[in-house]
Design brief:
This is Ketoreductase domain-containing protein. It comes from Natronococcus occultus SP4. Belongs to the short-chain dehydrogenases/reductases (SDR) family. Keywords: Oxidoreductase. GO terms for molecular function: oxidoreductase activity. With 247 residues, the chain is α/β, with parallel strands linked by helices. It has one domain: Rossmann fold (3-Layer(aba) Sandwich), CATH 3.40.50. Helix content is 48%, strand content 15%. The protein is built from nine helices and seven strands, in the order βαβαβαβαβααβαααβ. Helix 1 links the parallel strand 1 and strand 2. The longest helix is centred in the middle third of the chain and has 28 residues. The two termini are 30 Å apart. The chain binds NADP nicotinamide-adenine-dinucleotide phosphate. NADP nicotinamide-adenine-dinucleotide phosphate binds next to helix 1, strand 2, helix 4 and helix 7.
């Protein structure tokens, strides 16, 4: 599953799931654009890790919710490696509250980053992916987009919105050789779940048939397959990577 010569842009890839995806793709020979919003030091560490593994990477600072920033990221990508073959919309945030306590600002911010960021990045890199040989759009959704989750009306709405978007772009791309898919991780050991109290985590794990949280490598391995040319007959799908939470 070589990624040699393929240029991959991964949003929010200085840490967490995005970092795992970036390192997996870089180790397989991809040219990687490490996007960060605030984690500059970690972004440079990610570049070093990929270079140590024999790959190539650059950093691009951009808030995915800001179209001008995303345009800057495209320029960084084109200057370093040329057009992108693969875009992974991974950057995401939560702002949890029971619905009656949730402010409109908390709703809007989650939509701006999770859905608005996907819009901005996909639109900016659309021509690259469309024109690529076996271009790939991969959106990182969540099991919460399917099942809902207490206190996450904003996040669950954004994550399920990714499904319809992905299927629609998949239909548009189907007239060429590019594909669009979603990956829907279950609860994954990153900073995003770091703040969840232990007793809540224990309850979550007791509901997972495989009886553990996902590690970033579990998600990255699936993204790497979808990013490769081997996945060319899969499009418009939502691939669950959740330890059997739907069973
Ligand atoms: P995380 O550890 O909280 O990291 C979030 C990442 O998103 C960081 O790299 C952050 O960059 C970036 N980011 C946030 N806002 C951004 C913005 N406006 N512009 C650019 N980058 C931004 O989260 P994670 O757990 O790795 O989650 C990654 C993705 O997987 C998210 O879409 C999340 O919804 C999804 N997911 C996570 C889980 C889970 O249990 N962890 C489960 C299902 C789905 P900076 O640090 O530079 O700000």
């Amino acid at each position: 599953m070589s990624m040699e010569g393929r240029t991959c842009v991964i949003t929010g890839s200085a840490r967490g799931i995005g970092r795992g995806i970036a390192e997996h793709l870089g180790e397989k020979g991809a040219n990687v654009v490490i996007n960060y919003r605030s984690s500059e030091g970690a972004a440079h560490e990610a570049v070093e890790a990929i270079e140590d593994a024999g790959g190539q990477a650059v950093t691009a600072q951009a808030d995915v919710a800001v179209p001008e920033d995303v345009e800057h990221m495209r320029e960084v990508c084109h200057d370093a490696f040329g057009p992108a073959d693969v875009l992974v919309n991974n950057a995401g945030i939560t702002a949890d509250k029971q619905f009656t306590e949730m402010s409109r600002a908390e709703w809007d911010r989650v939509m701006d980053v999770n859905l608005g960021g996907m819009f901005n990045c996909t639109q900016t890199f659309y021509d690259d992916i469309w024109n690529a040989d076996e271009g790939r759009l991969i959106n990182i959704s969540s099991v919460v987009g399917k099942q809902g989750n207490f206190g996450q009306a904003n996040y669950a709405t954004a994550k399920s919105g990714m499904f319809g978007f992905t299927r629609t772009i998949a239909l548009e791309f189907a007239q060429g050789s590019s594909t669009a898919n979603c990956v829907a991780p279950g609860f994954t050991r990153t900073d995003m779940v770091e703040g969840v109290p232990d007793h809540v985590l224990e309850r979550i794990i007791s509901g997972i048939p495989l009886e553990r949280l996902a590690e970033v490598e579990d998600i990255a391995a699936v993204v790497r397959f979808l990013a490769s040319e081997e996945s060319s007959y899969i499009t418009g799908e939502v691939i669950d990577v959740n330890g059997g939470m739907d069973l």
